[in-house]
Amino acid sequence: MKKERVNLKRIVEALLFVSSEPLSISRLEALTEGLRIEGESLKQILIELEREYEAEERSFTIRKVGAGYQLRTWSIYAPWIRKLFHTRRVVHLSKPALETLAIIAYKQPITRAEIEVIRGVNVDGIVKSLLDRELIKISGQKEVVGHPYLYRTCKRFLEHFGLNSLANLPPLEAREKPSARKIASTSDLSFQNNDEGGGEESESETLNPEGITTRTEDTEKD
Fold this sequence. Notes:
Elements: H1 2-18, H2 25-31, H3 39-55, E1 60-65, E2 68-74, H4 78-84, E3 89-92, H5 95-107, E4 110-111, H6 112-119, H7 124-132, E5 136-141, E6 149-153, H8 155-160, H9 180-184, E7 202-205, E8 215-217
Parallel strand pairs: 2-8
Antiparallel strand pairs: 1-2, 3-7, 4-6, 5-6
């Protein structure tokens, strides 16, 4: 029985290792269907793996991200990981795009016009870019003249920023405009410190390109 338990742990570990996105309990149940592992047992296995990694001082850990679980490397290893992936170039978010995303995250659901009132500039291109990247989604229409679309963040937003839920967003002080730096503080996305080009995205090297199985955890290992 003990040997079987160890094997189940290694199966779950292998699934987390090869997955490029967080795996939910229901997804793990489906992937291990033939083994008849229930949700509570899977949760216990994840806890055991996390404790095992901590006891062995591994370079990675398990974190709950959005609706699922994912392997993440500790941030103290970021310099070496950066060297490994320095040749890979990915499109990342500019500062204007992050500012727009921050406004949506804190004020959702919100219309494009309401975003523009806060930012003071046209955000058509930025909103389209965020939709294309599946960081936001249309969640209905506002019951006003013209019935404008309402925008919300979606699952990929939580995954990119390493958040379990929107409740994990940094607190927003009274009368403070949503800040790109505030939301970026929990993110593995980088941004440029300029507003040129109206918030268009540009290509640049970044530490955590999409598709890397183990991502850097924001909290340093003690």
